[in-house]
């Protein structure tokens, strides 16, 4: 297996550190628009890793880099603006493709808060026949959420439930950053995108529909000492992926943002600073959202000052295989202290990065295989969960 | 009188429209970094007005422009970053000087929320001897607040009170902008500056000291139908000016920001978007605060969509000239509908702009005169209040 990793930011760099301990691949080319960043990501990890530059917005550039290095699998670890050129670039080069976020949505032009417009991943699913005909695999949304959360949903359907009333992905943390009043632990660009878009919900008989941002607040109790966190509906790929392969009456995603973060996001939106369309500032064109990202500390650099744990998981409610009412929360917790000590990467990016590396290893060994445009829930969950535990990062389950 | 007006933004353009109806001056050169804006400001107002360009950050450029047009009075109507070059440029050219905001403060390096550092206007007062020796006048803070609010303070001390316990400048409005959830009616650059700096308070025996931002919230009842508005302490020139010339036990400034605006300002601060130091965004340097201003609609262009009234005034509590307890609110209200109909300028910028024009007319007629660096409360208040009424914009007083 010859991997091209596009993006040497927080998640990409953590993926390098995780993959460096595994023997399933022959080479990994780590490409970024900033060569120095790629060089730093591969430094000290051995000669299977090669740094390169790439313009991730150019299909042709991605294809050319794949051909140059005879790439078999492309792992996309940049922000979701670049999904389509990387996805198309991998296809043109005859490589398989993995990502952790799907092609972007566009709100319904007249009823954004009740109906979907272009949905997350629609552009990729539109190409599914082409990928299938070519015998190639695009495994989409194989980070932590989407990713492990989807694997949990399939595992619940396969092993724990006969009938599912609701699958609710729930994400919460108790992370703090010393010395900062406000320092998001994940890409603010992506967080703005997912939190300010209309949240999407799926219901059997109704299909996908949207609500107002930050709708249906609920207090969810997270395990391993994190405790209660207020969670709200947020647009996320799981809601688009899970219903395609797993039978459930309702699928939701709620994010434990907390009041303060919600207030900041609402304020950024009021002022128009969530916009990606450039504004002219003293003769120079900049995207306000890029300025927000530039004004905040880079979350990948905050690991030394972070404390606490982050939890991703899937709450499932329905009837068990023995016909009883059952409610479980399948989850994965990473303690920042552990991920920093073991890998030198902070908890949130490490937790995201481990999953595509596990998936690549399953594809390398043949435990996972497929063609077309698939979500993680399209593939057997047990090999994934077992190998994740084998990476030293076990998952858990609470009966509720 | 030959006037150089620096800045053809909202306040500058309104000053042109107001001055155009008065005959006390010979010429007014309107200079902006953007010549088109200056041309638009003078268009249709007759041949006493001349458009020009100027780099307001350059003392030499201001001096050269003064000399070219034999300027006698410079009116500074740009944001307070440019106070010192314009102030020094006027002095070097032998012109008198007026502004509506003073040189910027810098917080105390170690105790910003309890002690003052460099105060508003300190840099200008440091030059007071030089101006006095030269026989020249710098009349500082002669907008609405500071400006008319300071005139009210002096008027209360001269005519209404024997002893003053507190002078509290209080600003509130009920303005809304059709079609916008959030659209500040005044320069966001200046609003961020004054609201996020440590608010300053003056007390007899203690002098100037600071508090946390948004401290001491109180509900103040504004006249003419505006009603109750929550006001909080904000850094403002009046607190630095009034105690120099008017005897009082305490001087404060509170701004009726409202909860929503306070939340937005707090959020901008958390994310670092209030910063003026440039950040690098995809290879380009921009000041985050300039991006905030660029992302919002220009308040000067919103007049057609605005509704409501804005009120500026000075609340005074003490013992009357007959020895009784007395509490009054001296105020000035502008209805946006009136200012748009009469002048084509929205209420907030019109209300700011009228005061320096009145002051220039008093200086032209000799009703006001002086040397050194003075605040509006250093000069007799009655001629000012009478001429303001003569401009068609009467003030009011409520006994409380």
From TrEMBL, chains A, B:
Where does the source fall among the domains of life?
Bacteria
Pfam families with a match to the protein in the record: Sacchrp_dh_C (PF16653), Sacchrp_dh_NADP (PF03435)
InterPro entries named in the record: NAD(P)-bd_dom_sf, Sacchrp_dh-like_C, Sacchrp_dh_NADP-bd
Looking at the record, the residues that make up the Saccharopine dehydrogenase-like C-terminal domain are 143-392
Q: Where is the Saccharopine dehydrogenase NADP binding domain?
A: 3-138
Q: Please give the name of this protein.
A: Saccharopine dehydrogenase, NADP-dependent
